[in-house]
């Protein structure tokens, strides 16, 4: 049993993969496959947040920025692909049909550039931002508020540049996805499978990071940053890596969100959207491996089903989730299993987390 | 059905068009400077409560915007009872302070008191509270929002350097200055203020010295939230009173507190004024949207250089 | 804490395995671009017409920021459904409606549209408010060959075989307003709007038409949708001293604008405002400061038509009433009756047959604003243009009306000042 234990998370991921990639397409209707695809995107963001917040202690309230980077990268490519070579996207025509395509759009015609940009753009932005913030030891509440402010700023910026980005109405009405006709159930299932597979990959990455020396340093930084510094490591670099990985995950999620949902607007990256991305992570358990992903999916499902049958009630429930989980289960639903010591498939890092739960944030604001 | 007729009231106006109605020349810098000062005063009112709850107590109250909303709705309710807007707005100020303060007290006693050692968790909890308060307001009050009539004595403008400065803006500034003075005096000169400062600087020692820190926490939170209520009354005179109104103040208010240096009232004042001025000048030079973007990004860049804000409390402890 | 040092690079095997799985998935999949001219000819309709009820979907934001406006639309749709049911239903079938919440979130609008069409199998969907919500719904109804009835005035330059527009397009609201201003002898105009697609598009059109009419645009300002602070922009209005302000601000931001305008000493006597988003619902929240200013709509509560008094009376008596009637809610009310007229003309709930009936022409609805006629080509309806002045009761005194009803012209084809290349490019892009 003890020999098996380190591998239990991997088995869990395997089961999860089978459920998503084999069982779900077989039993769900197209409508629910689409919805599940959307939840997978939120789950990918959540896995990244779990890494940055749960294990790194950085409450990232502005993941909408990176979600938006990936989403708009993909959406610009799909918009150009739909418009066809040499044509302007429809929304640009009105303001000046004779003006050329804005220069920053041009590279997104290329499939390869788009795919590279989805990964590379968040790396660049998160590196610059993270380096500046962490080197200056901005953390805790400051960090949360600053990232949130940036998400708001980006949303407003996109809203106000209608000719360049489509503005408040965003980009929508995509017909093709890298040559595949989006209006085809087989292709929709494919897009869903890609999103689900990416979620599995992200889980594997976080699992692997958690097992590595880096994972231990990250948790150590969360719990006692000064001691890590005294040991000769630079906490800024450790946090930076986690922050960048989380940003890339959010960007990938945004990129997959676009073909699945069919629209991206600044509202999906602004303040409330960024906070909603946190909700699932808090619910599921931020420091556990599966908690963030399952929590995000649960929130997505709640919005689809409860939001239909009882709209105002759903808002109250969402509010109560924030309140009750934070009050009584700060490490989320996954810590229930730890408390009961009955479920054994939890990751090693999650098992150590409840004890450390309140420690990392002790001194942040009290200066 | 009436057909194409000329509207007589309009003709009056349109006949003595442009040349006859020359206005005095106003220096281009004056309007954004004065508007920005008024905007800064409103931001200060919104942020002043946060310097107490966030700065002094470390609670990140995301429902602060909804306390502002509560203050605005209280101004409206007061007006339903006392219909003369000249008097009701004066009555509304203490009532809004009391009402929002009680909401804050409720939040403190019900939820916050269990999580003083988890500041980031207070953020999450209060996000939930803010969602719920917004939905309640949407369901209780007319969805489109309610009118808060401004008193007659605030109609008109004061002439400042040739610019007709709206009295309502002057009122916001006076109100902010009064709240600021009262808060500063309270913290500095009363024994209670000393207790707050003692609790903030060293909770354990304060407790050992016989200061009832729990009571101190509650009263601090009450006052901080009450100030949001006062901000709400001012906001109701400037913009719409509806369930969504709080959301536009919360992020700028937090940025102001962070930029000013957490817990530093003089820093908050300078930061609020600077952000207000910046917003107005950027709006003057670019667009209202770009002004938001530039102001936010500038604050973030500023914090790169002074991560602790304008002013900091020096302590000997490690971070 | 235990140290575990020995296991590094082992589990990386799993990554290539997954990559292989993804490649497999990619290989096995459906049609590519150019495979067929018509991608999977619209999903099979699952509308159930066997029983004695017909399912319709209502899609409005009941939570979030837009609930401020959309709640009323939802309520009036319920009232219209009750009325039609009491009157015998559509083609003898009682309406059974499914109310969905768009939650002020555009992907949710897309998701709920798909749910209504494929899970609930509704015959048509009614609702939406913002252009973003419409643009989120559009691809989904087109793909599933559903029907969507959109009740709000909008920026035009759009048409879809699957959407019916019962609010005004630009030539039924913006252009009448400009005609009115020109008739009054307005020479200078200031444009103030929220920073999103409707004001930007409307102002682009206004600027073109103003050049034609010889009206000078002396300023143009935008503020984000949810922001109340208009003081700097109003100072610019004071400095520019225009004859009129054309206001395309939407939502509660209007309150901040009107208050800043009033505070700056501007009045309807000195600098009147003409608005396209302030109606009977919105005016009360602005208090007396807005009184005396103008609005351009198709419907006003004060309109003297045969059907209006009854409509107002029924709405006031309705349990979820807001107490006043206004243009967008009247357009929503029309939309359900328009669907009834279409289904009865087609004798069917089938989408293609309904579109065929529309194309034949002659579909009319005896609406509170008068008898409106559907244009079977562009799916918009004819509407009267009206300008009202806000009085102390927050009602509108009608000061100008168009001569007869204005036919809808979403692409402004009847206006030669509108650049033909833009129109052609937009029409071509819309397919």
TrEMBL record, chain A:
Pfam families, A to Z: BPD_transp_2
Transmembrane regions: 7-30, 36-53, 112-134, 141-162, 189-209, 240-264, 313-333
Keywords linked to the UniProt accession: Cell membrane, Membrane, Transmembrane, Transmembrane helix
Keyword Membrane belongs to the record: yes
Membrane topology summary: Multi-pass membrane protein
GO molecular function: branched-chain amino acid transmembrane transporter activity
GO cellular component: plasma membrane
Cell compartments where the protein resides: Cell membrane
Protein name: Urea ABC transporter permease subunit UrtC
Species this chain originates from: Agromyces albus
UniProtKB/TrEMBL annotation, chain C:
UniProt protein name: Urea ABC transporter substrate-binding protein
Top-rank lineage group of the source organism: Bacteria
Listed InterPro entries: ABC_urea-bd_UrtA (IPR017777), Peripla_BP_I (IPR028082)
Cleaved signal peptide residues: 1-27
Keywords: Signal
Pfam family, one: Peripla_BP_5
């Amino acid at each position: 049993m003890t020999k098996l234990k380190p591998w239990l998370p991997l088995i869990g991921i395997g089961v999860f993969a089978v459920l998503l990639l084999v069982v779900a397409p077989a039993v769900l209707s197209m409508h629910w496959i689409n919805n599940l695809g959307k939840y997978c995107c939120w789950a990918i963001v959540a896995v990244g947040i779990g890494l940055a917040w749960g294990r790194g202690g950085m409450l990232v309230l502005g993941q909408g920025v990176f979600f938006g980077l990936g989403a708009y990268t993909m959406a610009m490519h799909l918009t150009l692909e739909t418009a066809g070579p040499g044509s302007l996207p429809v929304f640009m025509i009105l303001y000046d049909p004779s003006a050329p395509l804005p220069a920053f759009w041009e590279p997104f015609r290329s499939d390869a550039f788009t795919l590279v940009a989805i990964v590379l753009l968040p790396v660049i932005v998160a590196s610059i931002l993270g380096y500046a913030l962490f080197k200056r030891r901005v953390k805790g509440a400051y960090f949360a508020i600053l990232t949130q402010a940036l998400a708001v700023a980006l949303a407003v910026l996109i809203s106000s540049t209608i000719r360049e980005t489509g503005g408040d109405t965003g980009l929508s009405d995509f017909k093709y996805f890298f040559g595949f006709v989006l209006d085809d159930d087989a292709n929709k299932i494919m897009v869903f499978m890609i999103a689900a597979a990416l979620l599995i990959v992200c889980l594997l990455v976080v699992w692997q990071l958690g097992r590595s020396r880096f994972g231990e340093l990250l948790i150590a930084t969360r719990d006692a940053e000064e001691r890590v510094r005294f040991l000769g490591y630079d906490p800024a670099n450790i946090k930076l890596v986690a922050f960048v990985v989380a940003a890339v995950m959010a960007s990938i999620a945004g990129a997959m969100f676009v073909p699945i949902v069919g629209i991206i607007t600044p509202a999906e990256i602004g303040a409330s959207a960024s906070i909603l991305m946190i909700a699932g992570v808090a619910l599921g358990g931020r420091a556990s491996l599966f908690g963030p992903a399952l929590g995000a999916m649960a929130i997505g499902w709640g919005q689809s089903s409860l939001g239909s049958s009882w709209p105002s009630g759903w808002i109250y429930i969402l509010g109560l989730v924030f309140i009750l989980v934070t009050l009584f289960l700060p490490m989320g639903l996954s810590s229930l299993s730890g408390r009961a010591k009955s479920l054994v498939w939890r990751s090693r890092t999650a098992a150590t987390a409840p004890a450390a739960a309140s420690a990392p944030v002790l001194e942040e604001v009290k200066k | 059905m009436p057909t194409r007729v000329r509207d007589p009231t309009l003709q009056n106006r349109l006949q003595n068009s442009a040349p006859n109605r020359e206005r005095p020349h106003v220096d281009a810098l004056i309007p954004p400077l004065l508007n920005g000062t008024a905007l800064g005063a409103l931001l200060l009112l919104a942020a002043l409560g946060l310097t107490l709850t966030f700065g002094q107590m470390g609670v990140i109250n995301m429902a602060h915007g909804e306390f502002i909303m509560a203050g605005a709705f209280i101004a409206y309710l007061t007006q339903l009872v006392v219909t003369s807007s000249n008097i009701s707005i004066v009555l509304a100020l203490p009532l809004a302070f009391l009402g929002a303060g009680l909401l804050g007290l409720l939040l403190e006693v019900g939820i916050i008191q269990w999580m003083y050692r988890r500041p980031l968790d207070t953020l999450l909890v209060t996000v939930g509270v803010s969602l719920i308060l917004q939905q309640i307001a949407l369901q209780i009050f007319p969805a489109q929002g309610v009118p808060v009539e401004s008193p007659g004595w605030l109609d008109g403008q004061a002439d400042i350097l040739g610019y007709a400065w709206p009295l309502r803006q002057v009122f916001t500034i006076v109100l902010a200055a009064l709240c600021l003075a009262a808060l500063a005096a309270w913290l500095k000169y009363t024994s209670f203020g000393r207790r707050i400062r003692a609790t903030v600087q060293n909770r354990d020692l304060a407790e050992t010295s016989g200061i009832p820190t729990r009571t101190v926490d509650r009263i601090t939170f009450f006052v901080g939230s009450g100030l949001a209520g006062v901000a709400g009354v001012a906001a109701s005179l400037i913009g719409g009173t509806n369930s969504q109104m709080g959301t536009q103040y919360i992020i700028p208010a937090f940025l102001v507190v962070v930029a000013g240096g957490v817990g530093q009232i003089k820093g908050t004042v300078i930061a609020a004024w600077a952000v207000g001025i910046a917003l107005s000048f950027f709006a003057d030079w670019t667009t209202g949207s770009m002004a938001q973007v530039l102001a936010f990004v500038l604050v973030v860049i500023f914090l790169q250089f002074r991560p602790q804000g304008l002013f900091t409390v020096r302590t000997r402890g490690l971070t | 804490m235990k140290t575990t040092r020995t296991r590094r690079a082992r589990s990386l095997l799993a990554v290539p395995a997954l990559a292989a799985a993804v490649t497999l998935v990619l290989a096995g999949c459906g049609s590519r671009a150019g495979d067929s001219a018509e991608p999977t000819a619209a999903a099979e309709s699952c509308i159930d017409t066997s029983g004695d009820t017909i399912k319709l979907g209502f899609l409005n934001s009941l939570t979030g920021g837009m609930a401020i406006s959309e709640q009323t639309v939802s309520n009036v749709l319920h009232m219209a459904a009750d009325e039609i049911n009491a009157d015998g239903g559509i083609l003898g079938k009682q309406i059974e409606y499914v109310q969905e919440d768009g939650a002020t979130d555009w992907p949710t609008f897309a998701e709920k549209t798909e749910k209504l069409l494929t899970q609930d199998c509704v015959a048509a969907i009614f609702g939406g408010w913002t252009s973003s919500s419409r643009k989120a719904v559009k691809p989904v109804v087109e793909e599933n060959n559903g029907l969507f009835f959109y009740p709000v005035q909008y920026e035009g330059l759009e048409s879809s075989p699957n959407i019916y527009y019962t609010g005004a397009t630009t030539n039924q609201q913006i252009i009448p307003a400009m005609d009115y201003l020109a008739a009054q002898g307005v020479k200078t105009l200031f444009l103030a709007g929220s920073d999103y697609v409707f004001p930007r598009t409307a102002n682009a059109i206004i600027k073109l038409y103003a050049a034609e009419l010889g009206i000078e645009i002396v300023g143009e300002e935008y503020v984000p949708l949810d922001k109340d602070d208009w003081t700097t922009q109003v100072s610019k209005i004071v400095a520019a001293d225009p004859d009129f302000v054309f206001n395309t601000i939407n939502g509660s931001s209007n309150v901040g604008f009107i208050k800043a305008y009033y505070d700056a000493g501007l009045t309807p006597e000195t600098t009147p405002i003409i608005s396209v988003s302030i109606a009977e619902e919105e005016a009360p929240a602005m208090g007396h400061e807005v009184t005396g200013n103008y609005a351009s709509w198709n419907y006003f509560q004060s309109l003297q038509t045969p059907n209006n008094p009854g409509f107002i009376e029924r709405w006031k008596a309705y349990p979820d009433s807001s107490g006043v009637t206004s243009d967008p809610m009247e357009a929503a009310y029309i939309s359900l009756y328009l669907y009834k007229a279409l289904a009865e003309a087609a004798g069917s709930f089938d989408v293609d047959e309904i579109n065929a009936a529309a194309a034949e022409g002659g579909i009319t609805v005896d609406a509170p604003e008068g008898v409106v006629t559907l244009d079977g080509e562009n799916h918009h309806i004819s509407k009267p243009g009206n300008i009202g002045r806000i009085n102390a009761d927050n009602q509108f005194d009608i000061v100008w009306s168009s001569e007869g009803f204005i036919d809808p012209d979403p692409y402004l084809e009847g206006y030669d000042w509108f650049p033909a290349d833009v129109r052609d490019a937009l029409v071509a892009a819309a397919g």
